[in-house]
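Human: We require from you a standard protein entry with sequence in single-letter code and fold as tokens, and nothing else.

Assistant:
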Amino acid sequence: MIIRSTPYFDKKLSKKLNKNPRLKKKVSKQLKLLQQNTNHPSLKVHKLKGKRVHEYSLWIEGNLRITYQIITNVILLTDIITHDEY
């Protein structure tokens, strides 16, 4: 699968990385796993509900998550948020 991101995601990720540069390595590792196997156990992937019913969430660290949609053969990264925010 191909991984793409929205401008909104890029902006939020940039802000998170400015506050915590060590996060870059963790995000890269998890996205590489997602690209290879969308159901890898360490990603803790789950489908969201409510207004985000068309999105999935994957675990980065602690309560930090990346939300994404799967459109055909593309994984579209939509947001990087804490678990409490969705």
Summary: The CA atoms of residues 27 and 60 lie 6 Å apart. The longest helix spans residues 23-36. Helices lie at 7-19, 23-36. The beta strands are 2-5, 46-47, 56-61, 64-71, 74-82.
